[in-house]
Amino acid sequence: MSDRARRAVVPRFIKLMLPTTQCRGDAMRLTLASAKRYTSMNLAPQRLGDSCVIFSKRVLRLGKLLNRHSSCSVCSGCVCSSCKVEKNVRLVSSDMKVTRRRLVFCSPSPCLGNAMAQNDPELSLRDNAGGVARFYRADYNSVSSRLTASGPVSSSMTWQKQLYPTTPYLKHQLCWSEPKHQRQAAPHVSNGSHRHKSRTLLVDRPSSSPAPPPLYPPVMLRRLALRSVQTTLRNARGLASASELWKNPRSSKFSMTKIVGTIGPVSEQLDMLQKLTNEGLRIMRINFSHAEYDEALLRVNNLRACRGVHAEGQAKFNLRAVLHDTKGPEIRTGKMLDGKKIRLEKGKSVVLTTDPAFEVQGTADKFYVTYQQLAETVKVGDTVLLSDGLIRLTCTAVGKGEITCEVENTEEIGNRKGVNLPGLIVELPALSEKDKRDLDWGVEHDIDFIAASFIRKASDVHEIRAFVAECIKKHWAHEPKYIAPKIISKVENLEGVQNFEEILEASDGIMCARGDLGVEVPAQKVLTYQKMMVDRCNAVGKPVIVATQMLESMQNNPRPTRAEVSDVGNAVLDGADCVMLSGESAQGKYPIESVATMNTVIKEADELLLHPTYRAKFQFDPPTSDVESAVSSAVKTANEMNAQLMIVLTATGYTARKVAKYKPTVPVMCFTTNLKVGRQLQIHRGLYPVVPDYLERRPTTAEAIAHAKKMGWLSSGDRVVVISGDKLSDDLGREIVMGVADVQ
To answer: Could you tell me which residue ranges the Pyruvate kinase C-terminal domain spans (predicted)?
Structure first.
């Protein structure tokens, strides 16, 4: 044994190996028996295919090694008969008995290195510092053996170094041994009543390199050694996904969580909207608190004029959706005298009145408020907030049609500023007259979603839905099957939080509007309410949007703060279907950079969501119908079989929405013939609607798979789960058909 030989602790079971060269696009392999190959004397290649995990592009799935393939003995890569090389290898066991085996290597590959170039008669396996054989600690085996060899082997693999900082679940340790005359006995690890020797792999260390200290204390190593093989295999997916090694073929283009972007003066032009959609914008929000009808029409037309493959359909069809955000019922101040700002001084008193005589004559002593029930609602000691919470008042007296308040902080206030009554129940209509005019315009122009502001109870949602139905009869009477816009309730006050369950049941989705909510409730409570809303929406399968100040600093800066990046990422990890940009894309200096940055953060967080630790947090309500039972089974099948894609054939979008409820780990391509259905599916996480421009009917399974393959979502050898849903009749209900296909 050479003095250059060094040893590393090798745990049982798992070796994650990615060859730098791929054999004609064949799947990479992660064999369960790989440790046996290196650490026991029974190294016959034909014994290595008993049980394995196939690393195919993005996913790991259980299976058998294909008969026409072999596995590289160094990197475990799949090699076919046309590019494999067999070499004689000298193996040394723990009792120093030397045996020779003929093993298979992939070529061309660093696995052979200089030895292959020199055509050495014997090739030895060794682990350099960059390593061709790095193992991950899972358990110890009773087998104790050593492997050494001679002959230089070069390796340029650096992926192990990338994996280490991001692998909290599978730990590894690489220890250098001392020279032969300084070596100590191999450590022992206690495991119940048995004592197992740790196995060692002899490796070389350059003479100039100092011996690094152990990465983990012995106690930690013992704990890691007791991990079960099942836990290791389950966590292998998360380990790979957390690194840059396990690349999703769609990740460079698409993200599972969707982006809603507010379009304003800086982003409403066609060329700008085209760039935003290319960067990942899927839903355009128009804020009717500020937008005029001509501006809104320009934005809608420009969005629908954008071209390119929009991830969901061909160039002929644009499936980006439009979200109509209402101004909502608000309480505001009147105008100040001469239209100038007034200054409220701390400690002084000010009167808030509902007398119309002061509507345009406000002063620092008295000004108008639009809420006619102000005196009946506010009591002595209650808090009144002005100008989005910048000014705090405390009620000291209540009179007829007016209240007297003490100013808590000095600040200026202008015309038509917002008034908040935190914690108080106010009697406001669900729709103001302006909202009704705006909604009538929106329905006429075929909007997809309505973001209803300041929803306080379920009856508000019912009132809006009834008004929208009237608008549909007015503008779309010639379309008997016209699809109504979905109502997304904005919860932005304490009363809405208290009545959240009934609001959720009455709505098609929820928007957590953290801006106004943060004015109504203490700032620390916004976190609690956001988590609650997202969890409840996930449980019942309704989409949820997290909004307000996601990347606020990017209105003026080209890069976000670290806290903003974490905010976006945590919203995705919570299970949000969409995250929203407001001023960043509407009036900021960097709208394109804002969307691109958000898309990048989303894709990183989407990868983390594949880990079992994060997925385990999702709690779904039990299936309430046979359809949900069938769909949940289909999603489970896709997850467990590690399908590359799910395909849903749907006419109304009902089946696709049920699929989205159970958070599939793979993208879901939804084929439909209705553009409105396709656009409304945009709001759901992981759903990618497709309306084939060459068909006037719903495609067959074979046509759908061919279309997905043409778009680059599938390739030969991939596995796909296909679901089709049809409504048979009112009596018979729906028929759900699921199938699993391998792409040819």
So the answer is: 628-728
